[in-house]
From TrEMBL:
One Pfam family linked to the record: Menorin_N
Name listed for the protein in its UniProt record: Menorin-like domain-containing protein
Residues in Menorin-like domain copies: 29-262
Organism: Pipistrellus nathusii
Organism domain of life: Eukaryota
InterPro entries, per database record: Menorin_dom
Protein family (similarity comment): Belongs to the menorin family.
Length: 276
């Protein structure tokens, strides 16, 4: 039998088990997990640390590609500068008990970031997720992060980490938006079935409902797999879509990193109290 996750305090510990163990959630239900998205600049990072969020997501990049001097900073493209370096960010976040998700848009930042993570590893006895979009997805036109060197670099430092591996996507209000195709999902499974650590697949809420059959097939391929539903700022989707997704899948296998006000409405609809 393959293992689903690492033991208590490991970077691959299932986040539901970690936060249950720490009495921060009441049941093994992915909708219980509260996310803070884009905690990049110091103001957002400090807000995230004071918030009720269980998981803090932030973006890592190099300010100027190819510069030997540059160290990873916390910013989301098109930004290329920040008042926060990854080193400063890790120093503050390690003082908390929150889980971490680091998102990479380019390969260049991965190795220097892993080196900084290695310095704080002994202080991080909690889930750590490392994210990149490694395959082209529905309506996507962003550059993907090359899958093999990304996975190889991360695992060479940390074989015991949770991967968050996604597809580049787009959403257009005036067009018919295709969902995730069987080809896209099967290509992802081809990459992930050789891994031993847990993998969550970040998927775009507005495109999931028409792709439920594909994702059910994918989740049944391994008990290491889960989905993380995320939303674009201007995406058009309904609370009914989220409720449909919730009913379609095992509640332990789906997390919801969604924006307000839909997050609040969704939690209310399923009877989860939201701390504002």
């Amino acid at each position: 039998m393959e293992t689903t996750a690492g033991g208590p305090g490991s970077w691959s510990e299932n986040i539901l088990q970690y936060f249950l163990r720490n009495n921060q959630i009441k049941t093994e239900d992915g909708a219980q997990i509260i996310w803070y998205h884009a905690a990049n600049h110091k103001a957002q990072m400090n807000e995230a640390l004071k918030s009720a969020a269980h998981m803090i997501e932030a973006d890592v990049l190099l300010p100027s590609e190819g510069s030997d001097q540059s160290q990873p900073i916390m910013a989301h493209p098109p930004e290329t500068s920040s008042d926060n370096t990854l080193q400063e960010w890790l120093t503050e976040v390690t003082k908390s008990n929150k889980g971490i998700k680091l998102d990479f848009k380019s390969l260049a930042a991965v190795e220097p970031a892993m080196m900084l993570l290695e310095n704080v590893k002994k202080h991080l006895k909690r889930p750590v997720w490392i994210n990149a979009d490694i395959l082209p997805g529905p309506n996507g036109n962003s550059r993907v992060v090359d899958a093999k060197p990304f996975i190889d670099t991360v695992t060479s430092f940390f074989p015991d980490v949770t991967f968050s591996l996604g597809w580049t996507t787009g959403w257009h209000p005036e067009k018919v938006n295709e969902g995730y195709s069987w080809t896209m999902v099967k290509e992802m499974e081809c990459i992930c079935n050789e891994l031993s650590q847990p993998v969550t697949f970040p998927v775009r809420a507005a495109l999931v409902r028409q792709s439920c059959s594909q994702f059910l097939w994918l989740l049944k391929k391994s008990n290491r797999y889960s989905l993380t539903i995320w939303t674009g700022k201007n995406d058009n989707y309904s609370i009914e879509d989220l409720l449909y997704i919730r009913d379609y899948f095992d509640k332990k296998q789906v997390f919801y990193d969604i924006l307000e006000p839909q997050n609040h409405e969704f939690k209310q609809a399923i009877g989860i109290k939201v701390n504002l």
